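Lab meeting minutes (informal)
Scribe: AK
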Amino acid sequence: MNRPFVSGFRFSLLAFAVTLCFAALLSRLYYLHIVAHDRLAGVAEQERKRVEVVNARRGDIVDRRGNLLATTSAVVTVGVDPQALEPEDFTKIDELADILNISPAFIREKFSKLHREVKTSNGLEQRSIRWHKLAEEIEEPVYEEVRALGIRAVYGNAKYDRQYPSQELAAHLLGFVNNEGQPSFGVEQHLNFYLAGHEGWRELERDGRKRELAHFRRREVESTAGLNVEMSIDSAIQHAVEVELERIAEEYQPKSATVIVGEPSTGYILALANYPTFDPNKFSEYGFENQRNRAVVDRFEPGSTFKIVPAAAALNEGLVKPFDEFDCSLASVEHRGRNVRLPSDHHPLGVLSVEQIVVKSSNRGAALLGIALGEKKLHQYAYDFGFGEITGFDLGLEATGTLHPVEKWDGLTISRMPMGHSVSATPLQVHAAMGSIANGGVLMEPKTVRRVFDENGETVVNFSPRAKRRVVSQETAFEVSRMLEKVVEPGGTALKAYIPDYGVAGKTGTTQKIINGRYSRRHHVASFSGFFPVNDPRIVITVVIDDPQIDGVGYGGRIAGPIFKNIAKDCIRHLGIPPMEEEAPLVALGPTEPQTSVDNNPSARISTVLQ
């Protein structure tokens, strides 16, 4: 350019503009490299480097025979970065759709959508899309097929998914793990320390397309898988119980129902189920009413199942013998200088022996036994049998029930508690109390976990049976067992629970529910708790049905007795329990004929006891 053809003003203006651009560029460079260097370097470091958490695989839960109850499998969420796609990747859409079992049109739409509109303070802005989800919870073998296609822009994020292969089986014992990985009640929560394992981590770098640069991986700590838990339950027995509960729900439409099966000698629970129930795989579809473990948190008046307490206590204290007689036609008796009104029976029973009081489930007879014991001893034995305190259930979260201290008793408690009123209990407390009779008078803590073990099957933590206390002597427990055996024979209240040759012993309960502050004649809780064989108890079963819909009264012998029998037969078949030998005596229990002497007749002594 010849200067004569360019005016001085235009040349100066152009030179000034060029100088200004360079000055702005140098200023920006100075700001980026000097003024904002530390902050921007930190931002770049954050974008380039990541510390990723490596989740640990949660341990398995199995039953006593090793059958899988809960497990964890790795699943992958597959997606695409449409900005990183190559032209040839579009030719593989049909293969990818076939592997993921989704529509090719859906994949083509995600491959083609590169931007989305985002609302900002400056209005709508177009931003690049770096991730479209294509499919989730894809198993690892399927993901390997996806990777084999060679589409680098399609990749997955792995996570662990908790699964319960048997759906509802033992749901109230297992609990569940929610979508955030947090355990909720049951074994999942109570033994989370062992099951969860330990997370690992790794420090890595990514390129501009957010792909990992493996050769820049600096530090990595591997995760440690969780330990496994072996429960005491038997899946076959648990399944039999839940099938029976389904039948109960369909036939009687109760408000709720609970069945517990256990070993009296160890306290181990072989099955525990409630109605209504839920599927832990789909826990979010069920309400709290379905998820509540009613066996350990629901309380009810135990009714006649509680009568083992005054009967065993009076025998243990030497106040009575099995064939001592009481006049159960009395409407009231004198006690501590006042007249105590006795509860009524369903029909007049007259004079009954202690054994007949238990067999015929006499309310008045039980009251007379309680009065003979006195307030303090009756309360103490009730507590010793486990009422008014937690059972020691190893999964926690259990109710204590209600056992008022003696100083808070009213004038009727001494005659009403022996028949199972004025006291409340959970089904598990009733089960444990009956188990103590079957176990020779020793109360055991109910347990559902046997051990924690590692991947090689080696035991890490062992949960052995634990006895809480001796409640009554072995001789007393055997005497009560003999009485309870006659409850399921002709003349007893639970003939429908009878199993020939297996020596079933048990006690029925039929409790009027309290509705609007009064005992209802239409709403009942039917229950039965018993064990077998009586000469060497292997199994104790407790059945509680809340408000069965039936014409007439839902008696425990009528409703709960047959349920006990059906489950007991399943246990006999599955465990191979042999019938009792006829010639094998239970135990030497003393005289076999009623005592009629004045010294051994409580009717002659009771006037002194009740003063």
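Next up, CB showed the second protein from the same session:
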Amino acid sequence: MASISEDSGEETPLQVRLNGVATFIGIIGLSVAVAVLVVLLARYFTGHTYNPDGSPQYVKGKMGVGETIRGVVKIFTVAVTIVVVAVPEGLPLAVTLTLAFSMRKMMRDKALVRRLSACETMGSATTICSDKTGTLTLNQMTVVEAYFGGEKMDPPDNTQKLSAAVSTMIIEGIAQNTSGSIFEPEGDQAPEVTGSPTEKAILSWGLQLGMKFSETRSKSSILQVFPFNSEKKRGGVAVQGDSEVHVYWKGAAELILQSCTSWIGTDGSKQSMTPEKVGEFKKFIEDMAVASLRCVAFAYRPCEMSDVPKEDQRADWVLPEDNLIMLGIVGIKDPCRPGVQDSIRLCAAAGIKVRMVTGDNLQTARAIALECGILTDPNVSEPTIIEGKTFRELSDLEREEVADKISVMGRSSPNDKLLLVKALRNRGHVVAVTGDGTNDAPALHEADIGLSMGIQGTEVAKESSDIIILDDNFATLVRVVRWGRSVYANIQKFIQFQLTVNVAALIINVVSAVSSGDVPLNAVQLLWVNLIMDTLGALALATEPPNNHLMQRPPVGRGSL
């Protein structure tokens, strides 16, 4: 089975099962060979083994040493041949053939296999922990709702009610606090927006507001950058204009709201963040989340130049995250991929539980899960839908008990995904995980099979994965499962075929040895049967394509065959 173990230090589910079967068959074959050897030797030395003319092959006192040794060697050769026939040495050939065949076919289905054994491991998967953005959704984000100056903007790019000062701050925050960029070609060509899907959506919305990206960035200088942090769910930047320093923050709406002590009105006036206003913001966030929108908040904080470290000391400067002033919130729509509902329904019928792990808040995660079909009841509560922070605060034993029940995890960090994978594996699941970011690498490596995204995935994620989904589509994962189950089914057919021939040959030889003291198939004939059975059988049965019936069976456990 070295052909499918490769450089992995851990046995795959198929390898575990096949090693058990091969060991069992080998023990049976060896036992039969020893029994045949004992019977033939006993009959030979007692004179009950006869030549074709009816005379005994061994006569005590009348046989030379050479003749006696030749008779014993002949009997021993038959016993060894029985062991050779019984041991399934053709099994590695069949496994390698079906894995290689499946790998080439999966490439046509937009799945690039990086590790050969991943073909069959996916067929044993009992649960899939999937990202939302780009996998379950189209990854085509656009800003469809906006709430600035304490009022809803309809349409979201309508800034007529906002004062020039507020609009300037919004545009400056968008242009400076981003990891994306906008290339503005000459002539009538449309600007090219780059960056993550969320960044592209916000930058495109900024263009609709009248933002001139290069001009806006040139008006102020960046003093310090706090890149987006997946744990804190926010990113910030400190910029210096003509007379003052602004620290802009952008991130998860409900988390940014917790850090705000005031908000900016449509006229640019600073208002205190009263409990009533907090409730109004929360209501708007909840309404957007229920509509399956990703909520991103913008806030800022003015700083005195005296509070800014000198240039040679800014490397250790931690941007202030408290006492922020809320600018507003946008709702970003990312529609579900066509066919995702059917794919998830197919997984459910196949006994595979799909779990969505996302950084969005629980309301948005719930709405997307309902739209995709992961959830069927909108009123579910913990632990079916759980927040990453709640999950990580549980003990190891509690996490294992809760993990089985989780369908959706919102506001999750990469470490939360890793903890979920470990808990599910400890519960005996064969876990498949999708990921596209550098921070997803530990979870991809820990899972039984890691699937990275070919379009949005980073190189680190791809290097840590077993299969690369070239089109970032969840439906491709389902096709990978079908091919994985086909691998198992083909190997199962080969084992059934081989066992049929093995058992028939063994029974014929044992019965004949006990009854007549001879075997009907000599060593050469048994080896010919073994050669034909292994090679031609493997070629015929290892290359059968998958069929729809494979997705109507429950997944196979680690220890069964």
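CB comment: Residues 112-138+336-482 form a domain with the Rossmann fold fold (CATH 3.40.50.1000).
No objections, moving on.
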